[in-house]
Amino acid sequence: MPVPMPDDRPEAPYLELLARGAPAEAYERPVLRARADKAPADRLAALERAKLLALRVRGELEGRRRREAELSALYETAHDLAGLRDLDAVLQAIVQRARSLLGTEVAYLTLNDPTAGDTYMRVTDGSVSARFQQLRLGMGEGLGGLVAQTARPYVTESYFHDPRFQHTHTIDAGVRDEGLVAILGVPLVLGSGVIGVLFAADRRARVFEREQTALLGSFAAHAAVAIDTAHLLAETRTALAELEAANEIIRDRSRVIERASEVHDRLTELVLRGGGVHDVADAVAEVLSGSVEFLEVDAAPAAAVDRSRADGHAVRDGEEDWVAAVSAGGELLGALVLRGHPRLDPMDQRTLERAAMVTSLLQLARRSAGEAEQRVRGELLDDLLDTPDREPRLLRERAARLRADLDTPHVVLAAGIEAPDTGTPTTGPGPGPGSGPGGPPGSGPGATPGSRSVGTPATAPGSAPAEDAEGRRRLWSAASHLAATRHGLAAARDGGTVLLLPLADGDTADALARRTARQLGTAVHAAVTVGASAPVPAPAARPGEVAAGYAEARRCLAALRVLGRAGQGAAAEDFGFLGLLLAGTREGAPDGTGVQDFVTRTVGAVIDYDERRGTELIRTLDAYFAGGMSPARTKDALHVHVNTVAQRLERVGRLLGPDWQSPARSLEIQLALRLHRLASAVGY
Q: What pLDDT does residue 336 have?
């Protein structure tokens, strides 16, 4: 078993910063603190190396999260285009997603008006100035004019101090009224012409990265497709209205439209169901009645690809081939080649061009999906809990990729975070009737794995679950990190977190639970309660025992809270006689019947009386023994008159017999009361 990393190791403070998602500036503090403490040079050098490595890991994690969000937004945009009904709604969605993913304060889109010879504001998001929202400006003016003239993205860190473009009073007044400083603009290109510009802007100085420029360019491409599609539909409606008397023209136009619609629907369906670039080529080949092939950059005809990129259209290559460049954000990704077509209808040519655009989207999606694949494959623990009949060989292979050995003894641990100062669980089993498994560690965008219900017990009376999504997220993050460093597994379930950790020689489940509670509590800066199962000898060989162990661990978690030990860790072996109850129905353990018989035999008459009459004799007995068998302290605890306590104890005496307060009987009664309360908590 790997030894937990001591605090004096240079990596320790940075692992904690990574675990809690600290900002980049926080990574300077350990070095500054060491310098202030006059640490030796080798210590400072080790901290510097650890800091750089931690910042690289942090950057990689942030990059993956950003790419996943970008991929999701691109898919959503493709979905909007698939059901295009309202051009304004689609453009508004594109602008909103661009603003959200780039993290800017404002995003907006302008379109050229060929009739008026100027350009106008079409869609804005985040704008507060009415003057800015109604801007109309001459062609070639401002940053947008520079983008439109060159058909290339432009960015300025400080608009009013940038001499590269033509400033006018109208534009500057609108920009000043909106308070914009840093602006990024990318062209909306349709064919070889620019029809507008998509902007992202901040009210402070900012440097836009190359990846952000490429992402905004992808959204601009979608906006151009939406506008082009809307225009095409409008043109089609006009043509159909004008050509009602010309049946031949109508039939020809209908054939073209049906083909375009078929290709559009098929390509959209391919994107939504995760098809590949070769699926796109097959679909286009079937519609265009030819042979379509996707070629990588090094295999594509370079001259034709260059002409296609420069012209923005599919171009002829030789006598019977057509080539459409596949690119995104200025990066060439390959080419679609249509063979066997000496002549190509303009609509078919546009179909090939749109297929190239969809292919570029799928190529970008494949990159992000490859990175997300590693996270998806990490759901091995969920499969162990939910599907115990999995093939052991496959489980071992998946575990080996995660550097976990499922043929050694492991312990299942259920962890829940407690509310500050109250000991109230914010995760874990819900209280009493009607409760169910909790949600995932957080909600909304960027949420972590969802909950699944396995062996969900009830919680002791009086616990109050809090919907602390941030606490669950922090616990999940800390548990995932702990599992990775211990070569174990972790998952979010039932509103809490479950871990499967290896058990080293000489270690015990109880010691591992206590150690895990301390480590998780330190990582999340809150009390964490951890219940542990008995060791599972070989999870890969007997995966069914993992689910049983999880149920046992959750019962231990509930018992710790009932017994006032929230914030601690324990296994069933730590509870002595009570461990018989917590062990549940695991192989070789009692089923709880003997314990229930003892409770019924000892205080069953009082329990039955309470259930029939709606009285509180059991609660009175608990308070009586907790108060050292003092009626005065009992009445204070129950907030009743001392005569009421006396009357209730007299009724207890008639139900249990006159010797119920003798040392031997009172000991049995107290044990039965505790077992009764504990059995309710763990679901018996």
A: 84
